[in-house]
Amino acid sequence: MSGSEHQHKSGFETRAIHAGYEPDPVTGAVIPPIFATSTYKQDGVGGLRGGYEYSRSANPTRTALEGALAAVEEGERGFAFASGLAAEDTLIRAVLRPGDHVVLPDDAYGGTFRLFDKVATNWGIVHDPAPASDLDAVRAAIRPGQTKLVWVETPTNPLLNIGDIEALAAVAHEGGALLVVDNTFASPYLQQPLTLGADVVLHSTTKYVGGHSDVVGGAIVVRDLELADQLAFHQNSIGGVPGPFDAFLTHRGLKTLAVRMDRHSDNAERIVDFLLGHPKVAQVLYPGLPDHPGHEIAARQMKRYGGMVSFRVTGGQQQALDVCGRTEVFTLGESLGGVESLIEHPGQMTHASVAGTDLEVPADLVRLSVGIETADDLIADLDRALG
Ligand SMILES: *Cc1c(COP(=O)(O)O)cnc(C)c1O
Predict the structure, then answer these.
(1) What pLDDT sits at residue 7?
(2) One domain for residues 320 and 184
């Protein structure tokens, strides 16, 4: 059931479960085995079986994951990496050259910003920030002839702003650039940027795709085959690939993405309703709310609104810190997208490094990664923590 012909005919859940792998012809194994091997016997010099030569270049467990990733994003080829940042680094080196310019989200994931600002910059790559929710600002930030990538996240972290992928693709292409969408927060179940005109989809599969907080990984999916060849060459040349155990875990997570995302969204909606009625909550940020500035666009390009919820409390920073310290079902911690609920204070945790810059987030902000536990337990936990 692999191959693009099949991908476009079956539904998301079917692709997530079957694409990229057929039961093993020798044993009938229904699930891709963990091929813990670094090298492969050749049938005479250069006589490769199925193209496998050395596991940095390709490994069957990873091949199965890469096929499934391409299928769920409706792309032509998928690439798996050792982390989201390894995926980003490989993309940067595959498509950018010294002197090239990139438009970054003004609220980019901190690690992405650091990779451009502190690493890529040493190789002469320049960048400017623009809010992905403001098309005119993105257009103005593009330097025609020099800008090679427009990079966006939607929804963004932790303010959950929304960018219009279709319109951003048009703006990027007008300016001669490719549109890269970091689809980590939405996951491929809720949003498929390639179908809206994006050129590159990128994931930290550490989050919703893996979904169980037990493996770090990254992915890139593209449609253009020439770009895919460039990425394949750089993936192998740089070597930031996942091992077979990691590929197995990520693939196992992907199979249940649809049911998990629906429950994440159900629980988040319940929690949003609860927070909206709580006297100590000043504002709830969730793209599913009709008064969210990106709601209409989100309704168009997302299937549902996902499991990330941010809110501001009435009592300032101390109250936000107190809430984060008092929950018992929500675990205090960074990261997101796992089955277990997490709570954090962006100002002093994930976004501490941007304090004092334009990217600073409100001190009274709390971010939730709503898990798939019993919704009533999550609400009771927040109610207790809010006091
Ligand atoms: C976590 C994350 C990354 C980085 O991925 P790693 O797997 O931690 O390297 C990139 N973008 C977003 C939106 C993330 O949440």
Answers:
(1) 45
(2) no
